[in-house]
Structures are given as C-alpha cells and as structure tokens.
C-alpha cells in the first residue's frame, strides 16, 4: 500500500451493517478497504442499568472518540469520515431535560464538555439519580447523542483548522436494520442499512457538504 493509495477504514465490520458497508465499498471505492472488528461480550437484559450505561458508553461513545482521536490527524484532503449514530439519538434528545437539550444543541460545546456530560450520565445512573438529573431511560440513546454531538464538534474543528482540505465529517442513521441487536423483524436488510453510510463515504471530491450534520435516508435531519 503506497502513501498515495486511497484507504477506506470500516470499524465494527465483521457482520451486519458494517460488513455490508465493506462489501459496497469494495465494489465502488477506488482504493483499499480495511475491515476491523473485535469480539465483544454482550450484556444480558437483566444487567443492571448502570452497568449497561457504563459498558455501552465505553463502546459507542468513547470507542468512537478514541478512533477519531487517532485517525483524524491522518485524514488527507478530501477525506470522508462517517460515524454511525442512530435516530434514537434524536428521540432521546427530546426526552432530555431542557437544560441538557440546550447543552447538546449548543454550537459552541467543546469536546471536553461533551465528555464531561457523558461521564456524568454514567455516574448519575450509578447513583440512581439519572431521571432526576434530566436523563432518559436509555443508555444506548444517550451514547448515540454523544456520537452525534461529537461528530458536530469534530466537523467544526476540521472547518476551523483544515478548512482548505475540504474534509467532510458526518453522523448518520442506517435505519432499523435486521441485525443481532435489532432482531429479525426490522424492515431493512444490512445492505439497505449500508446505503446512507456508503453515500456519505463516497461524496465526490468537489462536494461542499453535508458536513457536521446528522443524515438519515441520505437527507440531513435537523438536530
């Protein structure tokens, strides 16, 4: 692999939506496609909520943040970054207190402030006060709020620090897809779920956007 070769890196890609994204990119992307995955123990439904919150937060939010921290400095001009979030983030945001909604929708929220909020959610669940503190009863939803807001923050930083490189970074919802987590009754196949992530990954080099947006069904959704 030479330094001039274009590379697409897909994390969590050993099955489901991730694997479908890899297959689409292998057909359409003019470069090397790298698949990464890890085995992960899944919590049972009977797992206490605070443990669900901590495990889900480490995987969904901090896992995404760690990957971005390491790889964003390596992204070349016209690169594309797609973080898979969920429409659950939009619905969960509406269930947060007005104070939390204002913080998550702020155009000036920093990464450090967001990390503090995500850690506070976990600590509030451990103390049994998350409802009192304005959080919804969904660990998954809160972590996906984190992914969506993190994407907005990183996009803003890219515009400020590397605006001339025309890098586009977005969060997206693949939809309700038939996976191990969503179950067999979901309306979309993994291939259909891959459509929006692949669309964003393959935005042409002269595209001006979307950037820093939440995208579903290839359309920008108001955050």
TrEMBL record:
Question: What keywords is this UniProt entry annotated with?
Answer: NADP, Oxidoreductase, Phosphoprotein
Which SUPFAM superfamilies does the record associate with it? NAD(P)-binding Rossmann-fold domains (SSF51735)
Q: Which domain of life is it from?
A: Eukaryota
What is catalysed by this protein?
Answer: prostaglandin F2alpha + NADP(+) = prostaglandin E2 + NADPH + H(+); prostaglandin F2alpha + NADP(+) = 15-oxoprostaglandin F2alpha + NADPH + H(+); cortisol + NADPH + H(+) = 20beta-dihydrocortisol + NADP(+); prostaglandin E1 + NADP(+) = 15-oxoprostaglandin E1 + NADPH + H(+)
**Which GO molecular function annotations are given, in alphabetical order?**
15-hydroxyprostaglandin dehydrogenase (NADP+) activity; 15-hydroxyprostaglandin-D dehydrogenase (NADP+) activity; carbonyl reductase (NADPH) activity; prostaglandin E2 9-reductase activity
Cite the InterPro entries for this sequence. Answer: NAD(P)-bd_dom_sf, Sc_DH/Rdtase_CS, SDR_fam
The reply to whether Electron transport figures as a keyword in the UniProt entry is no
List the EC numbers from the record.
1.1.1.189, 1.1.1.196, 1.1.1.197, 1.1.1.71
Q: Does the keyword Ribosomal protein apply?
A: no
Which PROSITE patterns does the record associate with it? Answer: ADH_SHORT
Q: How does it assemble?
A: Monomer.
Which family is this sequence assigned to?
Belongs to the short-chain dehydrogenases/reductases (SDR) family.
Name of this chain's protein: Carbonyl reductase [NADPH] 1
Q: What phylogenetic lineage does the species belong to?
A: Eukaryota, Metazoa, Chordata, Craniata, Vertebrata
